[in-house]
Amino acid sequence: MLGILVFNFLVTIFVGSWELVQVNMFIMCFLVLLSLNHDFYFFSIGWGLGLDSLSFLLVSLSIWVVMMMIYASYGVKKLDISSKGFLLVNLILLFVLVLTFCSTDFFMFYVSFESSLVPMFILILGWGYQPERVQAGVYMLFYTLFASFPLLVSLLSLYSAKGTLKMGLVESVEGLDMVSVLWYFCTMFAFMVKLPLYLFHLWLPKAHVEAPVAGSMVLAGVLLKLGGYGFIRMVSLFSGVNKVFNWLWVSMGVLGGVIVSLMCLRQVDIKALVAYSSVAHMGMVLGGMVLMSNWGLGGAVVVMVGHGLCSSGLFCLANIVYERLGSRSLMVGKGLLSFMPNLGLLWFLLCVGNMASPPTLNLLGEISLITSIVSWSKVGILGIMGLSFFSAVYTLYMYSLSQHGMFVSSLYSCCSGKMSEYFVLALHIIPLNIVIIKGSVVVSNFY
């Protein structure tokens, strides 16, 4: 895997062949996915790196999404907007993500966790859409850095107190005194911003709207999962404090998801709507993770994988519409079914995936999450009802407003779709609907 990644770096630097990099990425995905059925708990791959089932799922998702975003960004090559630099930044981002998910040391995890910010910042500033991309990049930079410094202090304190930062060897923090509580919140704050939790999410819509299609796809598909992955890894160190404060995170996740779902109903920008829907989905994921039950953790992992495929596909569709119309507004992009009928089915499949309808992977995960939250508190069913209902409402709002109605009269002719676009969308939809067959294997491997 790492060998093919290094080969891609060399091809990009010395040859600059876009097609060769695409073929190599496809081969890399195939080789990685061959091992997906292995029932391993943990194995080392050297250099302080290792994989277990959770890491392997997210590494596979990272490689798959980065491959698709290179295919979806063919416009960069066609217009020759520093295409070699674009490929190089994407490969660096993939390398950092693989390093993050394979780290077996918390300090190495922290360094690679924060390093993912740099290539994402370059993507937004270098290939973003509007002049506001500078503000969006600064928003993302300062939100993430402001939250990450307490995590660094927490890790250094953990090393000073326990003598090691190796995963599996660090002793958990005992006690419920003021220091332990402060330690817990300093550690989890960085993951809440990256997830993002409601109230810490203001950087996400700005970053999504101003990012190029590749930035939006990897941001929704993989980078939001870094927060969930880090939370799963570190929450076991603070299990005693977490039991006291889990009501806070579940409440903020579920109720915040309801509020964000209502905010989705007043969005006219397609990318902003999909970005806010990511916040709503991640709120329920946080509710499952913080309870530390088998149902909650397994469901959270499955929803993270399903959401990564689904939201990435919706951003890809939004970019296709933007390339045709020159606008992302739902007021301008109405009646798409009239002149882009071939994409109507793909819009429908990704929209029903976004609202967790069968047979998508999101359904399996949300059933597990709902079971864990409701079994923890019967009152939680009220928030879950609101979240599930409004999730369907804003998704149907987006689909009906974009596909139906009278299209803009200034639009005389339009290409319905290209083979490369159908290929990228099929790579989103097929795993989203097929992997549920192996869903039991995925969840059992994680347990």
From TrEMBL:
Domain NADH:quinone oxidoreductase/Mrp antiporter transmembrane: 103-390
Reaction(s) this enzyme catalyzes, per UniProt: a ubiquinone + NADH + 5 H(+)(in) = a ubiquinol + NAD(+) + 4 H(+)(out)
Segments crossing the lipid bilayer: 7-34, 54-73, 85-101, 107-129, 141-161, 181-204, 211-232, 244-265, 272-291, 297-322, 343-361, 381-401, 422-443
Domain NADH:ubiquinone oxidoreductase chain 4 N-terminal: 1-100
Keywords: Electron transport, Membrane, Mitochondrion, NAD, Respiratory chain, Translocase, Transmembrane, Transmembrane helix, Transport, Ubiquinone
One GO-annotated biological process of the protein: ATP synthesis coupled electron transport
Domain of life: Eukaryota
E.C. designation(s): 7.1.1.2
Keyword Electron transport: yes
InterPro entries, sorted: NADH4_N, NADH_UbQ_OxRdtase, ND/Mrp_TM
Enzymatic class: translocase
Principal subcellular localization: mitochondrion
Annotated compartments: Mitochondrion membrane
Pfam families from the UniProt entry: Oxidored_q5_N, Proton_antipo_M
Recorded topology in the membrane: Multi-pass membrane protein
GO CC terms in record: mitochondrial membrane
Keyword Signal: no
Molecular-function annotations in GO: NADH dehydrogenase (ubiquinone) activity; NADH dehydrogenase activity; ubiquinone binding
Record function comment: Core subunit of the mitochondrial membrane respiratory chain NADH dehydrogenase (Complex I) which catalyzes electron transfer from NADH through the respiratory chain, using ubiquinone as an electron acceptor. Essential for the catalytic activity and assembly of complex I.
Family membership noted in the UniProt record: Belongs to the complex I subunit 4 family.
UniProt protein name: NADH-ubiquinone oxidoreductase chain 4
Organism classification: Eukaryota, Metazoa, Ecdysozoa, Arthropoda, Crustacea
Gene: nad4
